[in-house]
Design goal:
CATH architecture of the largest domain: 3-Layer(aba) Sandwich
Number of helices: 11
Structural class: alpha/beta
CATH class of the largest domain: Alpha Beta
Largest sheet: 7 strands, mixed
Number of strands: 11
Low-confidence stretches: 1-8
Mean pLDDT: 92
Number of domains: 2
Strand order of the largest sheet: 3-2-1-4-5-10-11
Radius of gyration: 22 Å
Order of helices and strands: EHEHEHEHEHEHEHEHEHEEHH
Shape: elongated
Helix content: 40-55%
Length: about 350
């Protein structure tokens, strides 16, 4: 068991913020940051509305008591927003001025790639930062996993399972668009989990005939009467895919865009546990004098990556999952007596 150790340094007060798209588990990360800081005798200031809040001086004091019972809640008690002003040099100067005004020795930024790019710029202006990856897209290169991904997957799976019930009843095709921005992690994971007939992801350019129409036709020839097509938002519009199916097969698909429902809801066990670990190690890195890092998780272990290096890292989709999906889909189109 790791022993706690106190480090004598100048870390007296830190800020914590959430930025970009919200993700289930952000509150758990905020809670972990505040409670760990309190343990080490460090004060915490909550910056509301992300980088824009830092520019505007929109803040609240946080302590162990006022982060009680937020672990299980979705969203973020600190709110989140995108900031065009922070992208400008003048905007960042205002943010640094706020840090000085509040006496902040460092900032813990919880979010995705855009959040970390903002944090990097702030660090270059002399403000120490630590990043915690929280995005349902799971597209942060330095970490195998990001807070919110598992909950978002389970939300999408539950919705699709319900859709499948009604699609089967009416013998229809359902085209479901899931989030993920320019990454297919969410779509592929969900598609494999629900046994989709077709999954379209941005990492693999698809042929409308071969990858959509022919798969549905093959499934139909074996007697299958309902079809599930999962489309990552970065791969194209679900409505365009539905038109391809309509024109190529004569089937009239129903389109469902899950949208921001995937961001909401109570975080599951994996996201609560991961967020808590990351929040703890974020503060620990600052206390022990290792600022300007992104806290990640690889092979189940917490790792630190310098922010500049982290932002240069690209995460590759595990295409073996796509291969498995292809095998499952083809097997399901074989006749029962073969």
């Amino acid at each position: 068991m790791e022993e706690f150790k106190y480090v004598d340094n100048t870390l007296n007060r830190i800020g914590v913020l959430t930025s970009g798209g919200d993700a289930p588990g952000m509150n758990a990360a905020v809670r972990a940051v505040v409670r760990t800081a309190d343990f080490y005798g460090v004060e915490t200031v909550g910056i509301r509305r992300g980088w824009q809040g830092l520019i505007n001086g929109d803040f609240t004091t946080l302590d162990t008591n006022n982060v009680t019972r937020i672990l299980q809640h979705g969203g973020t008690i600190l709110y989140t927003a995108r900031s065009d002003e922070f992208r400008t040099k003048e905007g960042r100067k205002k943010a640094v001025a706020t840090c000085k005004m509040l006496g902040l020795d460092a900032i813990v930024a919880i979010g995705g790639d855009g959040t970390f790019r903002g944090a990097l710029e702030l660090s270059r202006m002399g403000v120490p930062i630590i990043g915690i990856p929280a995005t349902i897209d799971n597209d942060i290169g330095c970490s195998n996993y990001t807070i919110g991904f598992d909950t978002a997957c389970n939300t999408a799976i539950e919705c699709i399972d319900r859709l499948r019930d009604t699609m089967q009843s009416h013998e229809r095709c359902s085209v479901v668009e899931v989030m993920g921005r320019n990454a297919g992690f969410l779509a592929l994971y969900v598609g494999l989990s629900v046994g989709a007939t077709v999954v379209l992801i941005p990492e693999k350019k698809y042929d409308p005939v071969k990858d959509v129409i022919e798969k549905i036709q093959s499934a139909r020839l074996t007697g299958k009467t309902h079809f599930m097509v999962v489309v990552a938002e970065g791969a194209g519009s679900a409505y365009d895919v539905a038109n391809i199916i309509r024109e190529g097969t004569g089937i009239d698909p129903r389109v469902t865009v899950l949208g921001h429902i995937q961001r909401g809801g109570s975080p599951n066990a994996r996201d609560r546990e991961t967020a808590t670990r990351m929040g703890y190690y974020a503060v620990k890195a600052l206390v022990e004098g290792r600022p300007n890092q992104i806290i990640g998780i690889r092979a189940g272990e917490i790792v630190e990556t310098p922010v500049e290096e982290a932002l240069q890292m690209k995460k590759k989709l595990q295409m073996d999952r796509y291969t498995i999906l292809e095998v499952m889909s083809r097997a399901s189109t074989r006749k029962m007596d073969e």
